[in-house]
Amino acid sequence: MAILVSCAREPEPRAPVLTTAPPTTTTTTSAPPPVMFPPPYAYGTVQATAPPITGGLVPVVNRIATDKPYVFITIDDGAIKHPAAAEMMRKAGIRPSLFLNTKYIEGQRDYFKALPVTVHSHTSTHPNLSGKGYDFQKNEICGNADFITGEYGKRPTLFRPPFGNHDNTTRKAAADCGFKALVMWTAAVNDGRVQFQAGDKLNRGDIVLMHFRTTFAEDFQAFLDRAKADGLTPVPLEDFLA
After folding, report:
1. Where is 190: in which H helix or E strand?
2. DSSP character for 191?
3. How far apart are CA 49 and CA 229, in angstroms?
4. CA distance 54 to 96
5. Which residues of 198-224 are buried (b: 16+ CB within 10 A; e: fewer)?
6. What DSSP state is assigned to residue 63?
7. Can you spell out the DSSP letters for 119-172?
8. Under a CB-based contact definition with an 8 Å cutoff, are residues 66 and 205 in contact?
9. Helices 134-152 and 168-176 sit at what angle, rounded to 10 degrees?
């Protein structure tokens, strides 16, 4: 059994226990062909809308309801600027959604603007938000959104709390900062292995979590291989939470 650990090694996350898929095996010693995913529709067009904000609280989205064989890859933090990221994304033909912290991306605009991605919010300093006061949470969330808007020219619409930890104060602060949804995940990639909340494969609508770490290339390749093996195409999360 493997425990999904989100981001830095600080507070214990509330994510459930995950099972780990065995690594993909091959009978040849030659390098595998690149995994490519032709776009199933014109990316950047609305496929579905986010659930409504109710009672002043943003909705919590764990997975996307879809009858299409789609999966969603999200990448957090921005701590390690891996040099292979842009090339791997482009060769695969996919557009990940990034949830980035101000403290990791400040001064790194050129790196992240070179990636075929959409940038969303993950707080300014990556604290555990759960149990904190409204003003503290709003400053962390709005401050990060303001920074991303200034750096990338577009205000983020989705928010992910560090470690996945949040409460109703988090949801209210996120709504007040202009976000449409608080995004969690249903599977994760760590140390070159895909981990699942249930079962031993990815399913349509799954939101997958990974990070900008030294193992970025291994993790990203593991996701690509798993998605291909499970008959799924990675598509932009934003198109389904418009």
Report:
1. strand 187-190
2. T
3. 28
4. 28
5. eeebbbbbbbbbbbbbebbbbbbbbbb
6. B
7. EEE--SS----TT--HHHHHHHHHHHHHHHHHHHSS---EE--GGG---HHHHH
8. yes
9. 40
Structure-block tokens of residue 76:
């957090």
**Nearest in space to 176 (alpha carbons), one of 222, 116, 135, 210:** 135
Spatial neighbors of 179 by CB under 8 A, at least 6 apart, are: 58, 121, 141, 145, 156, 157, 158, 159
Tally of helices (H runs) and strands (E runs) in the chain = 6, 12
Dist CA 2 CA 238 (whole Å): 29
Structure tokens that stand for 130 in this block: 């759960």
* pTM assigned to the model: 0.87
Rounded distance between C-alpha atoms, residue 199 and residue 216, angstroms: 24
Amino acid at 94: I
pLDDT digits (tens, 9 = 90+) for 57-93: 999 999 999 999 999 999 999 999 999 999 999 999 9
At position 152, the amino acid (one-letter code) is Y
Report which secondary-structure segment, H or E, holds 72.
strand 70-77
In single-letter form, the type of residue at position 124 comes to S
- In angstroms, the CA 47 to CA 205 distance is 13
Here the tokens at position 154 are: 């577009």
| Residue the block writes with tokens 């226990």 | 17
Tens of pLDDT, residues 77-134: 999 999 999 999 999 999 999 999 999 999 999 999 999 999 999 999 999 999 999 9
Orientation angle between helical segments 216-229 and 85-92, nearest 10 degrees: 10
